[in-house]
Design a protein that fits this description.
Shape: elongated
Distance between the termini: 211 Å
Helix content: 40-55%
Number of helices: 23
Strand content: 15-25%
Structural class: alpha+beta
Radius of gyration: 54 Å
Length: 813
């Protein structure tokens, strides 16, 4: 019976129905919120990890390129003649102390056969080891291009290492060796400074796609760890095949992780950022548990409050219903019902008529106020939009129409969320938030920013200031929002942020020292490179502390120049010396520019300094070398001349001028053909183009005209001087006086011609004698033939008789 009463009770039904709606809404909202938060958090985490991977990959690429550039710089500055002198080459390497900071495993120089000929540190015992079996070194020596080696166990260090190799070329561009820098992966290196632990249990890995091997990792024990065999882990196979991005997968250790990958094309590596899924989603799990507890408590609280409120509000109705029920049961007239509101029909009608009159007067007053408000809002230079509880536009001012591109009549009555929100926003979600805000469930959203879609389809970013619209009872019946178009301001802020970030990166990684001062010349900023050059920390350099780095002999000159520049607000260039606390002296060159405000007043200075110590040493060595060369050149015992590409004389030494009898100013700039005879001009026209093409000339003889009119025969031998790009610069030729040899050759030729004439004459005489002898010989042969015939005739008879006698014997008869 009691249950039947509860089923028929309006209070019970309303309570249960309200609780049902509340529970469904609460649990749906909790489920939807946790799902949305989890998806948003995973997406944000993936973006953050991908950004981190991108930054780390860029940093590693930059560090690798810096080291290749350092090796290229050393290769360019290394004199090729030193390559043949191991002791001198070793001394050059020992002067490059800064290279040890780039290569913690040392660096060494190899010859064209791949054998180490100089090395730092010496204790590594690399000298004499042949590395030609290393693919990267063989590639550099044969193809002449920089390479980054595979990760291997170093022969000298016996630990995992990889090398960076650049070729060393001679003046003709041929590879004559290389310079190798070694990174020790087990020692402290630049990868350690980049790959710090990520979150609590996450970290970084650097993997070689070619080797399918770990190059470096936050956990150093994983260095040279091999990747799973192809097909075992498809996600890792995709990364090794070149895929980039963020995925969730089970790593070889059996842990489910989020991993973001970014490639390093310079070395064919990739950087992976790993974070266990359990750690990433731990806040979501914790929030879900808390939301479950909160939902249970809110359910109990809402049920109790609803039951108490309905019982309180329905109590007068229950009293009236009980009175009616009692009167109906007893058959008695009830009379005035005990209800606190006086609602007789007459009073109700009179009160209703009075209410209508009051409403009419209020409507007229409201219309006047509405018109006045509309005029005021039309002059406001901000968007004004009013919405009812359903999100329909009830008020919009001129500025809002201009920004949105609609007329007022096109917007009034339209659903704000469907008409003016872009497709990139979940309209239903925003509508629910709006309704919850009006219901007081989300608190007051006074200020926020969101994009709107204008009539053309473009989006504009609006900063809103909101307030609720309430009726006379204090109930919320809508919302009033004032908006400012901040699209351009946001873009400017973003551009400014990017500009500041670029400036920070440039100053922190600039190879030049950068500093900034205030209007009085006191230092307010220095970058790391400035500190490296000056040997001071950034704090020590502030104010006038930077002057501690000045060489005592240069201080006054720098102070005077700096004071003059700051007083005049002009730019300033200077050279001076810095001395570190350890006594190291370095030459620097600097330039500073004044910074002005919008009114043209100097606000300070921004300047750069560059370490030119090596250039100074090189210039000094160059001056000494040029002085030695000039001395050798001027005092050479043989004539020397240098021509430009057109054949004009650029230089000639004393011996050349002495032998031909000219002064230097008489020959410089003149064509060489002016100093040879007409007979030698064809030889010059033939030999000089051939000389420029082949790069050498060997032995042609020209007849030179001396200033006194005499002639000299000069044999020319020389080579072409070219720049680093192989372009013609000048000739270098040595002349040899062969006049005496030429005269001897002419005398020999004349004597030979005379002998040839004598031989020809004697030959003719011998031919005549031979013909006479042949005639006599013919006559002799004829005479002997006749004589032989005349003698043989009587002898034949005598021979016959002797034969007969020999056969028959001699008789008395």
């Amino acid at each position: 019976m009691k249950l039947h009463f509860l089923h028929r009770s309006l209070k019970t039904r309303i309570t249960l129905f309200t609780l049902t709606i509340f529970l469904l809404s609460l649990w749906a909202m909790a489920y939807f919120a946790t799902r949305v938060v989890q998806e948003d958090m995973v997406e944000l985490l993936n973006e953050q990890q991908a950004s981190t991977a991108h930054l780390v990959a860029d940093k590693i690429s930059e560090e690798l390129q810096n080291r290749l550039d350092a090796l290229e710089s050393l290769s360019t500055r290394l004199d090729e003649r030193v390559m043949a002198q191991p002791n001198a080459l070793q001394a050059v390497l020992e002067d490059r102390v800064a290279m040890n900071q780039l290569f913690n495993g040392g660096f060494f120089v190899i010859d064209r056969e791949g054998t180490a000929i100089a090395s730092l540190p010496v204790a590594a015992n690399r000298i004499g080891i042949n590395y030609m079996d290393q693919e990267s070194i063989a590639t550099t020596l044969t193809e002449g291009k920089p390479t980054i080696s595979k990760v291997v166990i170093g022969r000298a260090l016996h630990v995992p290492v990889f090398g960076m190799i650049v070729p060393k070329r001679d003046a003709q561009g041929q590879v004559i060796g290389g310079i190798v820098g070694i990174i020790n992966l087990t020692g402290e290196n630049f990868l350690d400074r980049i790959m710090h632990p990520y979150a609590k249990t996450g970290g970084f890995v650097v993997v070689s796609r070619q080797q399918r091997m770990m190059v470096a990792a936050t956990d150093k024990r994983r260095v040279m760890e091999s990747a799973p065999a192809p097909g075992v882990n498809p996600a890792i196979d995709r990364f090794l095949d070149g895929h980039e991005g963020t995925v969730a997968f089970v790593n070889p250790r059996g842990h489910e992780v989020f991993q973001s990958v970014k490639g390093i094309p310079l070395a064919n590596w990739y950087v992976g950022v790993q974070l266990p899924v359990a750690e990433a989603l731990a806040p979501i799990r914790d929030m879900q548990e808390k939301m479950l507890l909160a939902a249970i408590l809110l359910t109990l609280l809402a049920g109790g409050l609803t039951w108490w409120m309905l019982r309180r509000q329905l109590k007068p109705m229950q009293i009236a219903a009980a009175a009616l029920r009692d009167g109906s049961a007893t058959g008695q007239t009830t009379g005035v019902l005990p209800y606190p509101v006086q609602d007789e029909i007459g009073q109700l009608v009179g009160g209703f008529n009075g209410l209508l009159e009051t409403l009419k007067q209020r409507e007229q007053l409201f219309q006047l106020e509405r018109d006045s408000t509309r005029d005021i809002l039309a002059t406001v230079e901000a968007m004004i939009v009013a919405l009812d509880v359903e999100g329909r536009i009830t008020l919009v001012n001129r500025k809002a129409c201009e920004i949105l591109g609609y007329r007022e009549d096109e917007l009034l009555g339209q659903d704000w969320f469907a008409t003016c929100l872009p497709g990139s926003i979940d309209v239903d979600q925003v509508r629910n938030v709006f309704k919850q805000a009006l219901a007081g469930q989300l608190g007051v959203l006074e200020c926020y920013e969101n994009p709107v879609r204008i009539r053309s389809g473009d989006e504009r970013l609006i900063a809103w200031h909101n307030s609720s619209i309430r009726d006379k009872d204090g109930s919320i019946i809508g919302a009033l929002s004032a908006g400012e178009d901040i699209t351009e301001r946001k873009q400017a802020e973003e551009d400014l942020r990017k500009s500041e970030e670029r400036y920070r990166v440039i100053t922190n990684h600039s190879p030049a020292g950068i500093f900034q001062t205030d209007a009085q010349g006191d230092c307010i900023f220095v970058n790391p490179r400035w500190c490296d050059i000056a040997g001071l920390t950034s704090d020590e350099a502030l104010g006038q502390g930077w002057s501690q780095a000045l060489h005592p002999d240069d201080k006054q000159a720098v102070f005077d120049g700096w004071y003059a520049a700051t007083m005049a607000g002009l730019s300033w260039d200077w050279e001076c010396r810095f001395v570190t606390k350890q006594g190291k002296v370095s030459w620097i060159t600097g330039h500073a520019e004044a910074l002005f405000d919008t009114y043209g007043n100097a606000q300070g200075y921004l300047g750069v300094i560059v370490d030119i110590t090596e250039r100074k040493h090189f210039e000094q060595a160059l001056r000494e070398s040029e002085s030695l060369f000039r001395s050798m050149y001027e005092n050479a015992p043989l004539p020397y001349q240098s021509l430009d590409i057109e054949g004009n004389i650029l230089d000639a030494n004393k011996e050349w001028l002495k032998q031909l009898g000219y002064e230097r100013q008489e020959v410089l700039g003149r064509f060489i053909g002016d100093f040879i005879t007409a007979e030698s001009v064809p030889t010059l026209s033939c030999e000089f183009p051939r000389f420029k093409e082949s790069g050498r000339v060997d032995g042609p003889v020209f007849e030179f005209k001396c200033k006194d009119g005499s002639l000299k025969f000069m044999e020319v031998n020389g080579r072409i001087g070219r720049d680093s790009a192989g372009n013609f610069v000048r000739t270098h030729c040595i002349l040899t006086d062969v006049t005496l040899r030429k005269q001897m050759e002419d005398a020999t030729r004349q004597h030979r011609e005379h002998l040839e004439k004598l031989v020809a004459k004697r030959t003719q005489e011998l031919d005549s004698a031979r013909e006479a002898a042949e005639t006599a010989n013919v006559a002799k042969s004829a005479f002997l033939a006749n004589m032989s015939h005349e003698i043989r005739t009587p002898l034949n008879a005598i021979t016959g008789m002797a034969h007969i006698l020999r056969r028959s014997g001699l008789t008395p008869q």
